[in-house]
Specification:
This protein is mainly β. The chain has one domain (25-456): YVTN repeat-like/Quinoprotein amine dehydrogenase (Methylamine Dehydrogenase, Chain H, 7 Propeller). Helices cover 7% and strands 37% of the residues. The protein has helices spanning 14-18, 123-130, 206-209, 215-219, 407-413, 415-420; strands at residues 25-31, 42-47, 58-63, 75-76, 92-96, 103-107, 116-121, 133-140, 146-152, 161-165, 172-175, 186-192, 197-202, 226-231, 237-242, 250-255, 263-268, 273-279, 285-292, 296-299, 305-306, 310-315, 321-326, 331-336, 344-350, 362-365, 377-378, 381-382, 390-392, 398-402, 423-429, 436-438, 444-445, 455-456. Strands 29, 30, 31, 32 and 33 form a 5-stranded antiparallel β-sheet that branches. A hairpin with a 6-residue loop joins strand 5 (92-96) and strand 6. Pathway: Organosulfur degradation. Pfam families: SBP56. It is found in: Nucleus; Cytoplasm, Cytosol; Membrane.
């Protein structure tokens, strides 16, 4: 595309995005569901500009009009997929609620540092128009519409499917998928129009996971282990890739950012594996395991073996590094993925978790022979919980992390985080040789919020980021 002054939102290419301005503020939802505090969830705006007098502070809070929504992941009304459309502007943040099934539309364009509510889509619209509930991932489409994956039906069963919203009025238009082609436990998705493909993942049945994790539910078939391959043009489901036991609970799916790429990665929580998916010479799709974090034999925990529990992954915009968090073990890992089939571990940092030396868990056997990590203390604050949601700066040099996964699971695995609130941290990244180091000057302590300790989740930059932008 020729250079133009009137192009639409985002960036022309992933490499152009890497040259974008440094992030100055971050939006992240803060949750009170499953805590002792009967207050609405809210959208926090955090100052991440080191030159600012309010650096690493919450500078604005937008409360939702309802209780117990469980805000989770967010998306945009427009992103780099609309770059060629000068009539589009990235000025609305889409906030689905995982438990209440409401969808909030937030105006972040009028005053980016003080967002305001624009519209609320009621659950009944999802129920009646689509037969779906529990919305999760929101992506804008090149058409100007907004698509949101849903995990279940109104009864809490793991039906799965995709809701379409009008990109201007935010009205529910209907289902993206065809009748009878629902994908069970619909969690995350990513599309690559150049290859006419979308791939979606599975978490579990909402009624099974709502208040915590029960390993028996896995054996009962209430959690997923498959990727689904869709024809992007016809909306037909083409393939289901069963990842087997090693691929149980495949969560975040990330194509390489290069829009011509025919491969990507998915983090699978239960066995702590990463699978590479790819297009075969025949034109169909396949998957192979490329990373496996071994479980540790322990005592003092709910099971005799503790998995890492990979809960979030992302890829740098130049497609060189892959990052993921082990929410139980407590570490973040950085892999060089220049050799796509053989990722190489180049960075690791422990920030809390369930294995800290002064906790109740003792490691009996560790295939990686790592010492038990010490508790992490930043600015006098002991980190409760464990690294979970990740967001990378456009230039790849700063990795932001929050510690809350989902309030029902937080309460089960990290009750101290329910009492003390989650935190937001920043890690400095060596983008030359690989390597991760904690920035001791940055800490947002959500235990000190005005209404009491809150659980902060996914991070978004106003100008887009490496987990929300898709290029055509």
């Amino acid at each position: 595309m020729a250079k133009c002054s009137g192009c639409g939102p985002g960036y022309r290419s992933p490499l152009d995005a890497m040259k974008g301005p440094r992030e100055e503020i971050v939006y992240l939802p803060c949750i009170y569901r499953s805590t002792e505090i009967l207050k609405p969830d809210y959208l926090a705006t955090v100052d991440v500009d080191p030159k600012s007098p309010t650096y690493s502070q919450v500078i604005h809070r937008l409360p939702m009009p309802n209780l117990r929504d469980e805000l989770h992941h967010s998306g945009w009304n427009a992103c780099s997929s609309c770059f060629g459309d000068a009539s589009k502007t990235r000025n609305r943040l889409i906030l689905p609620s995982l438990i209440s099934s409401r969808i909030y539309v937030v105006d972040v364009g009028t005053n980016p540092r003080a967002p305001k509510m624009q519209k609320m889509v009621e659950p009944v619209d999802l129920f009646w128009k689509c037969g779906l509930a529990n919305p999760h991932t929101s992506h804008c489409l090149g058409s100007g519409q907004i698509m949101i994956s849903c995990m279940g039906d109104p009864a809490g069963n793991g039906k799965g499917g995709f809701v379409l919203l009008d990109g201007e009025t935010f009205e529910v238009l209907g289902n993206w998928e065809h009748p009878g082609e629902a994908a069970p436990f619909g969690y995350d998705f990513w599309y690559q129009p150049r290859h006419n493909v979308m791939i979606s993942t599975e978490w579990g049945a909402p009624k099974a996971l709502v208040n915590g994790f029960d390993p028996a539910h896995v054996k009962e078939g209430l959690y997923g282990s498959s990727l689904h391959v869709w024809d992007w043009t016809t909306h037909r489901k083409l393939q289901t890739l069963d990842l087997g036991e090693d691929g149980a609970i495949p969560l975040e799916v990330r194509f390489l950012h290069d829009p011509s790429a025919t491969e990507g990665y998915v983090g699978c929580a239960l066995k702590s594996t990463v699978f590479r998916f790819y297009k075969t010479p025949k034109g169909d799709w396949a998957a192979e395991k490329v990373i496996s974090v071994p479980s540790k034999k322990v005592e003092g925990w709910m099971l005799p073996e503790m998995p890492g529990l990979i809960t979030d992954i992302l890829i740098s915009l130049d497609d060189r590094f892959l990052y993921f968090s082990n929410w139980l073990h407590g570490d973040i890992r950085q892999y060089d993925i220049t050799d796509r089939r053989n990722p190489r571990l180049v960075g690791q940092v422990f920030l809390g978790g369930s294995l800290v030396t002064d906790g109740p868990v003792k490691i009996l056997e560790d295939p990686e022979n790592q010492p038990q990590p010490r508790p992490r203390i930043i600015q006098g604050k002991r980190i409760p919980g464990s690294p979970q949601m990740l967001q990378l700066s456009l230039d790849g040099r700063r990795l932001y992390v929050t510690t809350s996964l989902f309030s029902g699971w937080d309460k089960q695995f990290y009750p101290d985080m329910i009492r003390e609130g989650s935190v937001m941290m920043q890690i400095d990244v060596d983008t030359v040789n690989g390597g991760l180091s904690l920035n001791e000057n940055f800490l947002v302590d959500f235990g000190k919020e005005p209404d009491g300790p809150a659980l902060a989740h996914e991070l978004r930059y106003p100008g887009g980021d490496c987990t929300s932008d898709i290029w055509l």
